[in-house]
Amino acid sequence: MTAYNDPLWQGLAELETRRHFLTRCSVGLAGTWLGGQAVGAESVGGESAGSGPIGLHFPPRARRVIFLHMAGGPSQLELFDYKRDLDKLDGEDCPASFLKGKRFAFIQGVPKMLGPQYPFQQCGQSGAWVSDRLPEFQSVVDKVCFVKSMSTTQFNHGPAQLLLHTGNQNLGSASFGSWAMYGLGSENQDLPGFIVLVSGGKTPSAGKSVWGSGFLPSVYQGVQCRSKGDPVLYLSNPASVSRDQRRRALDALERLNRATFEETGDPEVLTRISQYEMAFRMQTHATEAFDLTQESARTHQMYGTEPGKESFANNCLLARRLAERGVRFIQLFHWGWDSHGAGENEALNAGFKDRCREADRPMAALIKDLDQRGLLDDTLVIWGGEFGRTPMRENRGGREMKFVGRDHNPGAFTMWFAGGGMKPGCTFGETDELGYEAVVDKVSPHDLHATLLHALGIDHKRLTYLHQGLPQRLSNVTQPSRVVEELLA
Amino acid sequence: MNNSTFPSTRSLLTVTVLLAAMSFTIRLPAQETGAAVDFNTQIRPIFTRSCSACHGGVKQAGDVSFVYASQVLPPDGWIVEPGDPDASVLIERVKTDDPDLRMPPPDEHPEPLSDDDIALLERWVSEGAAWGDHWSLAPLAADRVPGVEKAEEPTADRAGTEAWVRQPMDRLVAAGLADHGLSPSGDAQPEQWLRRVSLDLTGLPPQPGQTEALRRRCDSATSAAEVDAIYAEQVDRLLASQRFGERWASVWMDLARYADSKGFEKDPHRDMWPYRDWLIRAFNDDMPYDQFTIKQLAGDLLDDPTADDLIATAFQRNTQTNTEGGTDDEEFRVAAVIDRVNTTWTVWQATTFGCVQCHSHPYDPLRQEEYYACMALFNNTQDADLDSDFPTLKVPAKDEQREAAIASQRRYQTLRDARNQLGRDLADTVQWSPLIPQTVTTTDGRLAFDGDRVRSEGGTFPVGVSYTVQAGAVPMTALRIEIFPLSDDPTSWPEQGSVLTHLKASLLKPDGTVIPIELVDVFADALSGPHDPRDCLTANKQGVGGYPKLHRPRWAVIVLKDRLSDVDGATLRLEMLQSANVTGNLATPLRHFRWSTSDDDAWPRLIASDDLADLSQSLADAKRAVDGIQGAQLPVVLPRSPAVARSTRIFIRGNWLERGDEVSPGIPEVFAGGRARDPIVVSDRLDLARWLVSDQNPLAARVWANRIWAQLFGIGLVETLEDFGSSGLQPSHPGLLEHLAARLRDVHHWRLKPLLREIVLSSTYRQTNQTTASLREKDPRNLLLARGPRTRLSAEMIRDQALAVSGLLCDDIGGPSVMPPQPDGVWQTVYSGAQWNTSAGAQRYRRALYTYWRRTSPYPSFLMFDSPTRDLCSARRIATNTPLQALVTLNDPVYVECAEALVKRAVSDTRKAAAGETVIESTAVDVIAWMYTAVTQRRPSELELNELSSLYADLHPDVSASESQIDEAAMAIVASTIMNLDRALTK
Which of B14, B727, B887 sits opposite A469 (nearest CB)? Predict the structure, then answer.
């Protein structure tokens, strides 16, 4: 953090309050002011519940996160969770035992069972099952840790996405990335520390709340960047202002603000001066970071990227570039996995194939590329949707539909992880013989959060924020949660 | 607690990370010998910090809870023997060295309680172990003249203090400063004060010229009293400005979670702006806070509610409606009701009630069942998470049409109810005979019958399923259908909706002929949703039953046109179509029902009666009148008929699908006067609203006074604006908070303007915000108020100031939201064709509060300046300072446009100012000085003027150009620089 050598920061150091660290948004609760924090905690009461020092609690396995969210709920039964028995039952009435006490989004009455729609094969040394829809991904399975036994409580997109990203199905809680920023801060002063990239022209069902800061201060929210136009909103100078002119104006602004500081003594003025300087640097650094034309033809070939286009592939390559630059939390949203079969674009036998094509090569390339650059060791890549899909065929309105699809299934879905200290070539958890319910080593979103924070060196029970009378945490203080040690290398 | 810990707790994270900070107070507890131990400031903090995590509201290890007096003190409690520390288990357990007995347990808490804490506990017990309500629940005392308690302390500068005091509150502040060895700062310059007070009261900076005028008047005033009078005049002008209502409406909109969309997936548009207009009117009219409260929480329950009373209830409809296909409407109706409960307690009481959904409050005496008692207060409204936002009222944009339009809609509703009531009452008095089916068939799924009851038995019942029931025909004048939940267990209710949408009846003669039976009218147990019972005689998709959910058994009577008499050997055939559906084309079939018949001739008499004919005619007329009304469809709250009331049950562990015992409406015991002989009875929303603003509830006045203070000073007297409970912070100036709350309620009768007037004319508020190094070190966040506030402008003020100073601001008040320029591609929402269509003409320059607020994608520059998303009630904005903010005010086209306009305005204004006989063109220095003064209300110093002039010169190096010609492009960069000054962004 070279900024500390700046005379300005030295002046500020005398006036340092936690708030100024906080508002700079570059340093989390860990490190720099942890000492002061701990002293503060002691002086007002020692270690009552939830009041311990927060920040990095143990050595991190991962320093940053790339979360590839497949919005809509990709079918585990067509990708990773191969079920021979389901094939045998294809077309038969769903047994009553599967329907009792269940709530569905669209399935009504007694639906028919639906076998896997694509052939599977075992891949790599680890012998992980992957369907033929993901040929490129098949080559990286030995880097990947699969969790087949994910399950959630929510069966509608908005609430399920909120639960997966904020630990709470209702609005108002802070996203995973916000917690990471709150706990760890950013490693790069010249870029936002929590960047969101959306492909497919749509934000997720739950809106921007899935990367919102909820009850945490808004400074921790994700910054949505675009692969087209200004990567960060308002990054470019107006057409009428050149970079030199901007520099000249900021120099004047700094001198004028400094005079204000001398007159008022308000340290917030110094913070403001430094924020304007950071904004100026961000203009160069963010533009550069988002410039895909700097990449080689070979890399473009590997990812299937085309500079200037808004695509999941471009976002994967951007994710690597941002990871290289120390961005803490990079969240990608890909859209269109909601394979109900109510229309062609969201049918397992149509649109789903396109989604697989869009995602397969870039996500495999991302893992290989991070690996070859030595970044995979401390970058945690997460892949998954908000829930899975039913082994029954959807019968919307109680009728058989033209296209083939499956309804939402909160009972079982697959997520995978790569790098960041997760066990490579591992498959954890099992679903029942039809892939309907996670039955062995069930993992909830809360367990997931506890585990991922652990990988970042954070004790999920000790990273808290007081709101509505409770020391809130990502892993949700009202729900059980555990660190799934079995996933850690 | 001592003063040295005070600076370390100023962090914004204090509240957040230091649970232990809940015990923090600036007040020095009376620890010196002689004073009795005070439970609230000395004992409760020990309990909260060291005991309640295990012996609290959630965990009550060993059945001991330090949250409830009854579990600590006799007769029910057994751990404290008042007056006898040696006989008290509590004292024994904290003092013992035996690791098996010591509390807190050594394995988890190696350090025992400090000797000081133990000594305090012992003294407290020996003094009688008096328990006290939490400070915020103590009755609000009538305001005393402050300063009396200081009288016996003769101080050298007492006369000086008195001279400083302009308002009673100043005396309290001065006393607090004296305790810390500080004295107040001098008055701010008139310019600084006018900027502060204009932004605080109206959200806009003073207009060019106003500052100069004030300065001139003050300079020529001959006495301090005259200056004070001039200041008072300024304040009265600002309070009377229509801009006042806009500014304070925007404060309330965060609490009300105001938005122009419904939330969740598609996040579709909703017409909410008439509620915003109401807020602006209410603040401009200085509606007393008690009325303001009652209208928003229960305007629909007032006798003969006015249009505004009903519009105000939209406060509660700012909850979200989930229109995603396949969602359970009950799940999101419940979420909305829970949101209303939490919001109400946060807004009026600063009580964190949300956590009580799942379990009793860990630190405050709020029990889980009490949460659901509150929920019961809100559970019987007509809204049900329907996509249409039902119920809505059409609100015309024109003020003069509003009252009549709403009256007309109310008349329609009243007539509808009255007409239905005629048949409903009759149904209770006639004899009904069961109709025993001979056969029951269905187009889909399986049905079975047993006696007169028909139930579904499996299979799929899609939208459009039709049942046919045949039974031996009997003479009759009316049929009744009872629609039951499939389950007989009320804890599993509500069930999926159950609607009969079209009934056809016919008579099968023994000879095979089929004679249709004509049905003429339908009456239901209650009108409880968007459907009209008579729709089940038509082919539309509405009808009778429970929609969108079946909360309880329902019934409806279908009246025959003519008595069915010739029935010998004939069969009655009932064809029952069910084509209603909820979002996502989900069916709402009947799953359990029975038919019965009546042969009472009262039915034909009713059908032929003048009463019914008159009502039908009036209803048709009223319907026509309502159909002719043009206006916004404002979601409002209307009560659900008690005849079909929903029951409220505890959600076990907060899970809405796991329902426990039924609860009655009420408020928590701790608010209702505990176990007093005459506890306060609150049984509906109107009771609740009236109680909130009654003398029996001290919190509402404290909480509202605190919010007002925070708007002016940046930090509340209780910093945790959202939490006045044990986990919130204690007031920094308890006496001042009491004083303001009592003034607000008892002296000003809940009016905001006179309270604001007192505060902004006080010496405390009028202080300069410049500080010395020593004061800054001693009190960096100005909690002690030894100087004037210096705070960043809110997101709204930053936009409004830029528009105002550049002369672009559009003065229109009220109306639908507008769409100022926003970068392309910010709005990308699934399944929604909604477009951001940039407003044209003056509409693009409206004040910030009129900007279209889409929940899933709020206006980006506001979010960057710390606006909440308004998903939920937000009681406090925490001001941040980030590089993204710099990018907004430097590069957002809105601000670029303002900078350019500011230059044009300055050029033209300075040209005019210089104009005499001859036109003198503006000089660059004139223009710069004008802009600087317009933006900051302060004339630039020579240094500042030089700095900006040299900036202009460098940006405009072409010296050959005419001196009198301003280079507007270069000057716009200077203007932007001025608008980005720290001075411009703060007040």
Answer: B727
Contacts of A405 in chain B (CB under 8 A): none
Give, for B373, the enclosing helix (H) or strand (E).
helix B368-378
Q: What is the mean pLDDT of chain B?
A: 89
Mean pLDDT of B376-402: 95
Cβ within 8 Å, pair B891-A45: no
Q: For residue A305, give how far its alpha carbon lies from the nearest alpha carbon of chain B (Å).
A: 21
Across A296-318, b (16+ Cβ under 10 Å) vs e yields eeeebebbbbeeeebbbbbbbbb
Contact at CB, B896 and A240, closer than 8 angstroms: yes
Q: What is the mean pLDDT of residues A384-405?
A: 88
Query: What ipTM, to 2 d.p.?
Result: 0.86
Contact residues for B145 (Cβ-Cβ < 8 A; gap 6+): B168
> For position B51, what pLDDT does the model report?
84
Indicate yes or no: CB of B725 within 8 angstroms of CB of A469. Answer: yes
Give me B321's structure tokens. Answer: 């409606």
Partners of residue B10 in chain A, C-beta under 8 Å? 17, 19
Q: Which residue shows structure tokens 């120390």?
A: A326
Token code pair at residue B680: 């306060």
Report CB contact under 8 Å: A249, B884.
no
| Residue B795 near residue B828 (C-beta atoms within 8 A) | no
Cα distances (angstroms) measured from residue B676 to each of B628, B669, B673, B971: 54, 10, 6, 71
- Residue in this structure with the two tokens 């910010």, named with its chain if needed: B826
Of A229, A260, A466, the CB nearest to B19: A466
Q: Tens of pLDDT along A139-167?
A: 999 999 999 999 999 888 888 999 999 99
| Nearest chain B residue to A270, by CA | B982
Of B420, B439, B434, nearest to B575 by C-alpha is: B439
- Phi, psi at residue B344, to the nearest 5°? -60, -45
B283-326 pLDDT tens trace: 999 999 999 999 999 999 999 999 999 999 999 999 999 888 88
Interface A-B: count of C-beta contacts within 8 A:
342
Confidence check: pLDDT of B919 > 50? yes
Q: Which residues contact B268 (CB under 8 A, 6 or more apart)?
A: B261, B262, B323, B387, B832, B834
The CA-CA-CA angle for residues B106, B111, B115, to 5°, reads 120
Q: Among B45-54, B416-425, B426-435, B714-723, which stretch is predicted with the lowest mean pLDDT?
A: B45-54
- The phi and psi torsions of B337 (rounded to 5 degrees) equal -65, -40
Selection from B238, B258, B451, B329 nearest residue B850 by Cα:
B258
DSSP-derived 3-state class of residue A416:
strand
User: Which chain A residues touch B892 with a CB distance below 8 Å?
Assistant: 234
Distance (Å, whole) CA B177 – CA B185: 11
Q: Enumerate the residues of chain B whose CB falls inside 8 A of the CB of residue A166.
A: none
Distance CA B823, CA B837 (A): 11
Contact of B497 with chain A, judged by CB distance below 8 Å, is answered with no
Q: In angstroms, what CA-CA distances link B611 with B411, B480, B605, B727?
A: 17, 22, 10, 61
Residues with Cβ within 8 Å of residue B82, at least 6 apart in sequence: B73, B74, B125, B128, B129
